[in-house]
Amino acid sequence: MSIYGEKAKIIAGGVDLVPRMRLRKIKPECVVSLQKISGLDYIESNGVGLRIGALTTLRSIELSPVVQRDYTILY
């Protein structure tokens, strides 16, 4: 990231970045994957808000008891 700066894009699951790249809406010089960084697949609720890690799958969000109970708009 320090070399490419804004010319780089970060990819976690790819649901946003990959389709835009296929449509040639963006053409990053470098794509940096977060896949090997542990601890980015979490769902946390602290009573004030909900935190969802960058590597949390949509399926995990759907099946989360916290989301189903407290954030029904996402369920």
Task: Provide a descriptive summary of the structure in words.
The chain is α+β, with helices and mostly antiparallel strands and 75 residues long. It folds into 2 domains: 1-36, no CATH class; 37-75, no CATH class. The protein has helices at residues 17-22, 58-63, 65-70; strands at residues 8-11, 30-33, 43-45, 50-52. Strands 1-2 form a two-stranded parallel ribbon. A two-stranded antiparallel sheet has the order 3-4. The protein is elongated. It starts with 7 loop residues before the first strand and ends in a 5-residue tail after the last helix. It holds the Pfam family FAD_binding_5. This is Molybdopterin dehydrogenase FAD-binding domain-containing protein.
What key attributes describe this structure?
elongated; 24% helix; two-stranded parallel sheet; 75 residues; 4 strands; alpha+beta; two-stranded antiparallel sheet; 2 domains; single chain
**Proportion in helices:** 10-25%
Largest sheet, in brief, is: 2 strands, parallel
In N-to-C order, the SSE pattern is EHEEEHH
Kindly state the number of beta strands.
Answer: 4
Estimate the mean pLDDT confidence: 92
Strand residues, percent:
15-25%
Number of domains: 2
First-to-last CA distance: 34 Å
Structural class: alpha+beta
Number of helices: 3
GO molecular function: flavin adenine dinucleotide binding; oxidoreductase activity
Pfam family, one: FAD_binding_5
InterPro entries: Diverse_Substr_Oxidored (IPR051312), FAD-bd_PCMH-like_sf (IPR036318), FAD-bd_PCMH_sub1 (IPR016167), Mopterin_DH_FAD-bd (IPR002346)
Protein name: Molybdopterin dehydrogenase FAD-binding domain-containing protein
